[in-house]
Known about the structure:
5 strands, alpha+beta, five-stranded antiparallel β-sheet
Amino acid sequence: xxxxxxxxxxxxxxxxxxxxxxxxxxxxxxxxxxxxxxxxxxxxxxxxxxxxxxxxxxxxxxxxxxxxxxxxxxxxxxxxxxxxxxxxxxxxxxxxxxxxxxxxxxxxxxxxxxxxxxxxxxxxxxxxxxxxx
Length: 133
């Protein structure tokens, strides 16, 4: 029934699948991101400074996405590789305005920060915005 080494192969396969499953899990679990977004839905933030596009695929890096003092609403998105924070003007509708990315936090950054997760993301976010309500 069992070939020599088949148990070892099975164990190795299970370990490999476990590793791959960890890599494909979002940085923030979907349930946690949903709960965080529910909290953020009623909150308004004020930008602390001008926020410029910081990514190569955003064309005009001379014009700020949001000027200092702009009231914004936030949304969290999480994938296996990063957490993305989007901001949109507080007076705009989320359905029609998905928002601009104001912060990326990569899995490697979180892992190098002793896996502090949400507190570390909030710390970085607090450098950009403060509560307005």
